Amino acid sequence: MKKILPVLALFISAFSLAQTPCVNGVAGGYPCDGIDFLSRLSLNDLGASSGNDSWGWTDPQDGKEYAIMGLSNGAAFVDISDPVNPVYLGKLPTHTDSSTWRDIKVYNNYAFVVSEASGHGMQVFDLTRLRSVANPPATFSEDAYYGGFGHCHNIVINEETGYAYAVGTSSFGGGPHFVNIQDPLNPVAAGGFSGDNYCHDAQVVMYDGPDADYAGREILFGSNEDRVSIVDVTDKANPQGISNGFYGSVEYTHQGWLTEDKRYFIIGDELDESSFGFNTRTIIFDVSDLDNPFVHFEYEGDTEAIDHNGYVVGNDFYLSSYRAGLRIIDISDIENGNMSETKYFDTYPNNDSANFDGAWSVYPYFASGNIVISDIDRGLFIVRDHLLGLNDNSVSNFAIAPNPAKNFVTISSKAEPISQVEIFNVLGQKVMDQNFEASLSENINISNLQAGMYVMKINAATTKRLLID
Fold first, then answer.
1. Residue 14 placed within a domain
2. What global pTM score does this model have?
3. How far apart are CA 110 and CA 431, in angstroms?
């Protein structure tokens, strides 16, 4: 395990560590570096034979956090507000048959679930039902259903516009199938795009990146088997292909995610490690000119494992890397062609070979700093960055919004009055300390703080992660 700088050690000592800290390269029997182990629910606990995708939901009413995990036979919902003692609340069974593939995304307090199972379509589940589960685990029913397609490999949602993009269906040649979900209980078909090969996965954003030609447009970045596909989907009735990005030694362009400045698109090829013998390879595209994407550089990790799903939070790239587990890669110097692994938690201790076992996906967007890993063989893991391994037993008492924030952030409480708020940077330095007259809501000016990750401590007890854009 890497040595911790003295100032970091002081920072950590100020708080209680997580349940099983990463010490000498091990946490809870799993290899690690800088990531603490909080808890695990096995496949047996979840009543399934295999696991797949994962996502998360934070209840805006009380700030409680919930993990959602795709399983062979449905989607599981887990209360992780106490991450050391997660509560399996229940399962939404598959709409038709069991399947190796299931995918979930969230919009406006609803979960949208698709699967490769024949005739499955899209299930809609009201997540607010999780607030009052009397005798968990419950067997849930779907609240709405969309049958405009049958099997589906993946679902993408642009939360800013209220549109879902189902990819890998039998419609539109496997290209994105548009669904208006602005009224979640009444999904409406909205067209599709068939102009550029089968789409395996995608990210859709309201574009505010460096290419002024597309400012304010809704842009889809697709991982389309042998290429990156960039499509303007603003006009659902007339989507326009913009460009393709190609790279060498292509085997299966699987999934990608934009950096937060939208200058780079980081993708993984799912079969290149086994076909060409690379160590875990990540391809970084420069997409600053959407009409002319090109390979900026390639990064190879330290193991032979196959990469699967990756997501960006600030200057970190969270990569689920099958048999190598979760890998966190520093992308702060991506402009100069430099990336480096800084932390990991290996959910598959046996080996790091190029096979399809271990970590399928990761969800790193909880404000608490809790990270969810869904493992094909071992179920649901909850882990946390060692530097954020803080005692957060009252995580449900306070809600923070927005998060990420820019100039102001509001802290609200349903019961416990807010008397003090402290903010620390990642070096453990206190950058803000404010006292209040014990109110239930406070609006805090953070405009003087630089963009990055911080830890907010409320009433000298509860800790939250705060991201500043």
1. no
2. 0.82
3. 36
